[in-house]
Amino acid sequence: MLKRLRQRLSWRLAGYAAAVLAVGGLYFWHLGSLTPGLAAGEVQASGASRSLEAIWQTPLNAPHKLLQYAASLMGRSAFNWRLASTLLALIFLGCFLIILRLWLGGRAALFGLLVFGATPWLVLVGRSASPTIIWLWPLAVAACLLWWSRTVRYQNLALYISILSLGLALYIPGLVWFLVLAVIFGRRHLAKLLKRHSRWAITLGCLLLILVLAPLVRSLALNQTDWSTWLALPSNWSKPLEIAKSLGRMAVSLDWRSPGNVNWLIDHLPIFNSAQTALAFIGLASLFLAGHKRQAWLLLGWVALAILLAGVNQNAGFLTIGLPVIGALAAAGVYYLWSQWHRVFPRNPLAKGLAVGLVTLLFVLQVTFGARYCLTAWPHAPTTRATYVLQ
Fold it and tell me: What is the pLDDT of residues 2-32, one digit of tens each?
């Protein structure tokens, strides 16, 4: 019995290790030399994080700027400038894995990590020196809140870390709207969590939040133009018809056709492939079938708000905020199909082996596709070679 348990644990650990190595390799392979130079956005981002004084003066995207500044101390090179985004991408993927494991279990979390982590858009954003990857920060907030809601021994520590992640999230343009949406849907659960703490603990948490937000408040008070950037609202609004067209283009960029002028996509290819889209729809349907309508509508609202910000600003980068939701729904789709297969064939080892083989083949193909897209096709695309030319 003990020997069988050890074997199962060793196989599970081997699966996690293989997933981490496969996904991590996509982000680190020739990180500083895959393109002939830097894009204009990368040069601008590296300039904004050149010193602590520059970060203090313009603290928007401060988490990314601070990490990029720390990496640049090792040398000002393309590798070090991009390293900040890569490390953040791996941290966010770790948070994504934790969330899925607590929600769907270890096996579905592992498969979900492969489906989401090998998405070309995410890989290329995680290999860029621009701060686009920071829009995945809600994953860190969600992971901290889940830990806070489940821990018993470290309740106060979990409270303070959750407040810290929430405060840093407010430095990221546009995320304030998503945090408001999350608070509206989860206000009752949040109130229950706060009741577990003493007044002194909550007061200390509020002081920590004020301290974290002080540079942001100072910047917004001194520079009125930063408000539109922080709220992710355009300074010059387009005509309603143009906004409607832009919203449509951003919506279909997820699974059908992209505008074609995005640095992290080849030509007009969409962000997600048809397999990921189909699994996400199955996962969404499973939530409604299981009676989790409130959670399903929250996830749909999250994606819709990301599309709205992307369309209004005509900036596809805002779609990054909604990608984890679609990745989580795809993982839920895998979990639903697996559970239904197991219900039909509960004790058939041949059927179980066939299911494992098919699922494994799907994810091997997904990782292979991501590798060929990001490391072979994208660097040689004409748009890429024309964009990444600055030294």
Answer: 556 565 556 667 766 777 777 788 999 989 8
Residue 115 has pLDDT above 90, yes or no: no
- Residue position matching structure tokens 């770790």: 94
DSSP string, 212-279: HHHHHHHHHHH-TTHHHHHTT--SSPPPHHHHHHHHHHHHHHTTT---S--TTSSTT--SS-HHHHHH
What's the pLDDT tens digit per position in 277-298? 999 999 999 999 998 998 999 9
pTM for this structure? Answer: 0.92
Please state, in angstroms and as integers, the Cα–Cα distance from residue 383 to each residue in 39, 260, 263, 378, 388, following that order. 11, 9, 8, 9, 9
Q: Return the residue matching tokens 């994953």.
A: 139
What is the SS3 assignment for 210?
helix
C-alpha to C-alpha distance for 118 and 323, rounded to whole angstroms: 12
pLDDT of 61 reads 94
Give whichever of 71-75, 91-95, 256-260, 266-270 has the largest mean pLDDT: 91-95
Instruction: Tell me the DSSP string of 325-358.
Output: HHHHHHHHHHHHHHHHHHHHSSS-HHHHHHHHHH
Residues forming beta bridges with residue 390, ordered by sequence position: 38
pLDDT band at residue 268 using 50, 70 and 90 as cut-offs: confident
Distance CA 40, CA 84 (A): 17
Which residues are 38's β-sheet partners? 390
Report which secondary-structure segment, H or E, holds 318. Answer: none
128, 82 Cβ separation under 8 angstroms: yes
How open is the CA angle 319-321-322, to the nearest 5 degrees? 70
User: How many other CB atoms are there within 10 angstroms of residue 335's CB atom?
Assistant: 23
pLDDT band at 345 (very low <50, low <70, confident <90, very high): confident
CB 203 within 8 A of CB 213: no
**HSE (CB half, 13 Å, CA atoms) of 208?**
18
